[in-house]
Amino acid sequence: MSAPTPQPSRWAIWLPLALFGAIVVLVAIALYKPADKTVTSQLVGKAMPQFNLPAALPGRPGLDSKILANGKPHLVNIFASWCIPCGVEAPQLAALAKAGVPIEGISVRDSAQNLTQFLDQHGDPYQRIGADDDGQIQLALGSSGVPETYVVDGQGRIVYQHIGEIRPEHLELLMGKLKDAGA
Q: Which of 96, 62, 86 lies closest to 145 in space, CA to CA?
């Protein structure tokens, strides 16, 4: 006669089900409250990095960071002709420019020919456009991509960063940030 097979304890039978239940609860919590993956600039509240970008287009002024500390708030828009969302935000930038907002552009990794075609197609709200051909100023600003827009107060301090294209529903927010910055 053989020895009886030992029976697992009662809790050992339920252990796999309990582990599965715990995993389901953790996944449900993660889905309910996903992690914030927004990359924000560490420069908000700090002075704009010093730069002097050459003109992106012949016959137009480039962009020197000193102009951003002229006592008036500015929008600084990082964009490129190859950026589809940059075309999407063009009507909103035109509306801001029409409302008297000074908009400065930083063109990233672009050519004068492509930039001219882009502005002909989508409009030109910019007072100045600096050419950031190697993306160094974009990196210095902590920008995660194009388009990206910064509200800069009259002392040249970044007070707000808008990641992604500006949509119609963002205009009121941006106008409020500009007003708070001294517009």
A: 86
The sign of the torsion formed by the CA atoms of 59, 60, 62, 66 equals positive
Tell me if 93 sits within 8 A of 103, measured CB to CB.
yes
- Return the CATH number of the domain spanning residue range 52-180: 3.40.30.10
Q: Going by C-beta distance under 8 Å and a sequence separation of 6 or more, which residues neighbour residue 41?
A: 141, 142, 143, 150, 158, 161
Report which residue type is found at 112: A
**Is 154 in contact with 147 (CB distance < 8 Å)?**
no
Determine the longest span between alpha carbons in the chain, in angstroms: 103
The dihedral over CA atoms of 66, 69, 70, 72, expressed in degrees to the nearest 10, equals: 140
Q: For 12-70, write each residue's pLDDT tens digit.
A: 777 888 888 889 888 888 787 766 655 556 788 899 999 999 999 999 999 999 999 99
- What residue segments make up the domains of the chain, in order of their start? 52-180
Task: Give the pLDDT confidence of 107-138 residue by residue, as tens digits.
Answer: 999 999 999 999 999 999 999 999 999 999 99
Give 3-state DSSP helix, strand, coil % of the chain, rounded to 5.
Answer: 40, 20, 40
